Structures are given as C-alpha cells and as structure tokens.
Amino acid sequence: MARQSAKAKSGGGGLFPVHESSLRNGLQVRISESHDVPVVAVYTFFRVGSRNEVPGTTGISHLFEHMMFNGAKRYGPKEFDRVLESHGGRSNAYTTTDMTVYHDEATPEALEVILDLESDRMQSLAITPRTLESERDVVLEERRVRVDNDIPGMMDEELGALAFKAHPYRWPVIGWMKDIQNITRKDCESFFQTYYAPNNATLYVVGDVDPEKTLKLIQRYYGAIPRGPAAPGVLDAEPEPKGERRAQIRHPAQAPALMMGYRAPPAGDPDAFALDVLQYALAVGEGSLLTRELVYEQEVALGCGVDWSWRIDPGLMIAYLELKPDSAPERAEQAFYAELEKVAKEGVDGRVLQKAKNNLKAHLLRELATASSRANALGTYELLLGSWRKQAELADRYQAISGEEVQAAARKYFAPERRSVVTLLPSGEEAP
Predict the structure, then answer these.
(1) Contact at 8 Å (CB) between 172 and 147?
(2) I need a surface site. Which of 214, 327, 331, 413 has the fewest CB within 10 A?
C-alpha cells in the first residue's frame, strides 16, 4: 500500500492543495486537484541528465528520452502516442543538465490510460538494436541541426567546454557526436536499470482529479515495479577559475557574434535569487538595461539576451550578443563590460529594479495558469530546490531583494576571472 502524508498547500498563495505520497518502491507521488478545467497533466521527473553522464557515453540521457517512446511489454513500438492520441491526449519530453521529464495531457477520463502507458515503459522498456539505431539516427540529425549548423548552439557548446574543466556541465546535453555514435545496447540497459527506477522518480498528477482515487490507480499500476539500485552521486570537482578564458570560432556566418559565460552559484544559493532579479533587469523586455544601451543607444548589437538557469551544481550566467555584419566584436564586448561594471559600481535604478521584480512575479503567476505548467513548475522546484513549496515563497523572496544585494551579486559574479568568452567570426575575417 502507499504511504500518504497529510495534505499540504502548494504555491500560488495556497490556491492548489498538493497531496504528498510515496510508494514502497520509492516512487514519490504528488497529486494536485483543480476542477476549473476538465484537464489532467501527468509529469514524471527522473533525477538524471547530462550531469550524470561520463565521457564515452555523453548524450545518453537525451538519447534515452527518444528511446522511451519505442515500445515496452504491454504497448509495442509506436503504440504510446497512437494510444494516447486516440484518447484525445498528447505527450512530449525534455532533457536538461539535471533532469529528464516526460509529460502527458488529456481529459480526466484518459488518466488511467496515461498511468498504464507510463508505468509500462518505466518497468519494461524494450531496448532493441533496431530501436537504438533508429533513435540514434534521429538524435545525430538533431545535433547537426541544433549544434553543428546553428550559431548559438555551436557557441554554447564551445562555451561549456571552455568554462568547465572537470564537471559534466562541460559537455552539451545532446552529447558529443562520436559518443552518440558509439553508445551500445549494453550502455542503454545499464542506464535504464540505474536511473529509470521508481526510487529515482517523482510523479506529478495535476488537474481535474480525485486525489484518493488517483492514488489507488497509481498504486495499481506502479506498485509492483521493483526498486532499483541507488543512483551514483556526482562529484563536483570543478576548480575555481583563476582567470579569463577565451575561444574563437570560424564559421561561414553572415555576422560575428559574442557569448560570455560567468561562473555562478547553484540553485538554492541566496545569490541565485539576486541573479534572477539581475537577469530580468539586464535583458528581459525592450526597456531592459542591455537592450536599451547596446541595441538602441550605442547600436553595437542587433539583439542581446541573458540566460541564467538554475542547476544542481554551480553553473553559468550566459550573455549572447547578436552583432551587425560590419560590427567590431571587440567594441561590442567592451560596451557590454562597461554596462556590467556600471551595475557593479552604481547599482540598479529603483524603477528598473521594481520592473524586474514585477516581471518575475508575472512569470511565477503564469506558471500556475494551466495544469501542465503547474506540474512542470512544482516538479522542477522540488528537484532543484528540494520542495515544491518553494514556489509559494519566491514572489515574497524576490520582492525583498534589495538594490544592494543585486549590486553585490554583480560585483561578485561579473568579475573578469569568472568569465569565459567565445567569439564567432565569419570565415575569412581577420581576428581582432
């Protein structure tokens, strides 16, 4: 039988109750009911991503995301989507550095079908030479499109390898080409047994459901799946950076581009929340600091963006500058540093700071707008921050962050020795 905890309120000011449970095999279960719309979302979070890989099998987490749609004991190849779609549902999945997530959405009447499909592939995925080769070809083509022939993709890959020396964050989520080509069936079987066990997963069911009946269904379909071995830990042996690192890419592009990454703290670190506010102040919206100054005032860039994504271990805060064909990359780079230095020395204007907090609050509210987005948000917070309850605390936490905290974070994390820089030059151009 399942062991069920007392009811607890979820994020969004207690708008949605969340029932926490765990099965004897270690599967964590979270059920949140909301009857506003007759929809149910089912999200399965596996605690595995490219962070859990080793050289030689990089990309296996993402490859496995594809493999999981190719048949198991009760439902054969290509049956998963056919059966779900015949019940009006839809499914998809994604892989990151720290997690792999499978999600389904349908009307409540299809919930049992979803649980049957998902439990089937968790317990008895069919790993055959044919499906492995088929999905390997798909992933290799995806890599060619998204990395080898995509400017931001190839620059991001180069930046990761430059910024990290020892940590698995140094390779791309999709993996190195040669590794993808050489992953074996035995590698896949070992990976599945280790990371796709119920004790390495959390199941979120959100929407128009009855928690008690849903828990009984989950027990029926998942209860007999055996517990797997404990997943091996990941050692963070990454040394502290001692100076700026630089790399250059030559590519037949129309214009140069810049990508800068700054070593940043892990999810949950107090500084991570100040960097959230700083990211929104710098690059979210047409009136953001970098867009206003670099794009509209100085006209040294066509566009700029800042990507700051939480990770289990210390990650990167990444800035990307799209330049004009005749731009001088060194001029745009220096203009970018000048803006960061201005924030570090003078702080952020009060109106800009409040605008960033308002945008963050709006983002948090949008996460609760649908059953699917709510399941994804709560599961992500639990995996990265330790509890889905953190979602309810974030709006107040962001509001309480002071200008001094944002300025201190800028001084600390935008230091030149924490910086890695990738410059892309069109083929044939002379390096500055």
Answers:
(1) yes
(2) 331
Mean pLDDT value of segment 207-230? 97
d(CA 15, CA 8) in angstroms, rounded, equals: 11
The alpha carbons of the chain give a radius of gyration, in whole angstroms, of: 23
In angstroms, the CA 53 to CA 232 distance is: 10
* pLDDT tens figures, 240-284: 999 999 999 999 999 999 999 999 999 999 999 999 999 999 999
| Count of domains for the chain | 2
Domain assignment present for residue 238? The answer is no
> Is the domain of 181 the same as that of 251?
no
Same domain for 202 and 64, yes or no, is yes
CATH number at residue 329: 3.30.830.10
Contacts of the segment 250-253: beta carbons below 8 A, 24+ positions apart: 250/424, 250/425, 250/426, 250/427, 251/151, 251/154, 251/424, 251/425, 251/426, 251/427, 252/426, 252/427, 253/151, 253/424, 253/426, 253/427
Q: 65, 293, 333, 339: which is the annotated catalytic residue?
A: 65
> Does residue 65 have an active-site annotation?
yes
Tell me, what's the pLDDT at 106? 98
The number of C-alpha atoms within 13 Å of 107 and in the hemisphere containing its C-beta is 5
pLDDT of residue 8: 36
Does pTM surpass 0.85?
yes
Q: Model confidence at 77, in pLDDT bands (50, 70, 90)?
A: confident
Tell me, yes or no, whether 167 and 273 share the same domain.
no
Residue 185 CA to residue 187 CA, distance in Å, equals: 5
Task: Convert the pLDDT of each residue in 306-329 to its tens digit.
Answer: 999 999 999 999 999 999 998 899
CA 318/CA 115 separation, integer angstroms: 38
For position 14, what pLDDT does the model report? 53
Which residue range is the domain that position 272 belongs to?
A: 245-426
